[in-house]
Amino acid sequence: MLIAYDSRTGNVRRFVDKLKLPSIQIEETMTVQEPFVLVTYTTGFGQAPDKVMSFLKKNHGRMLGVMASGNRNWGEGFARSADAISELYGVPVLGKFELSGTSRDVERFVQEVGAVASY
Hints:
The chain is an alpha/beta fold. The chain has a single domain, classed as Flavodoxin domain (Rossmann fold, 3-Layer(aba) Sandwich). Helix content is 38%, strand content 22%. The protein has 4 helices and 5 strands; from the N terminus they run βαββαβαβα. The chain has helices at 11-19, 50-59, 80-89, 103-118; strands at residues 2-5, 23-25, 36-40, 63-70, 93-98. A 5-stranded parallel beta sheet has the order 2-1-3-4-5, sandwiched between helices. Strand 1 (2-5), helix 1 and strand 2 form a beta-alpha-beta unit. It is globular and about 35 Å long. The mean pLDDT is 95. Probably involved in ribonucleotide reductase function. InterPro entries: Flavoprotein-like_sf, RNR_Ib_NrdI_bac, RNR_NrdI. This is Protein NrdI. Belongs to the NrdI family. One of its GO terms (molecular function) is FMN binding.
């Protein structure tokens, strides 16, 4: 399964590197020709980044799920970008993680990706 991701500070990139799955860092104008899972960061007060939203306008039809990073200091806004993308595009939230994630976050995500890939 392809992982499409965006990372502002490097935390999402470090998380994706731990997955050992094929991955691409998104660009607003790129088109993805295969099913993918999105991993993104959260910005502002729980919003998805503009670059990610531009990418999804073109590519949401192949997205099978979403995961987001965040900071637990934001309380209910923690990794809220995953919830917003899930609601907008009707895909499941596969998880949320803080900073670059723990080994348990990685294990859970790989299991979730396997589940949506086989569905």
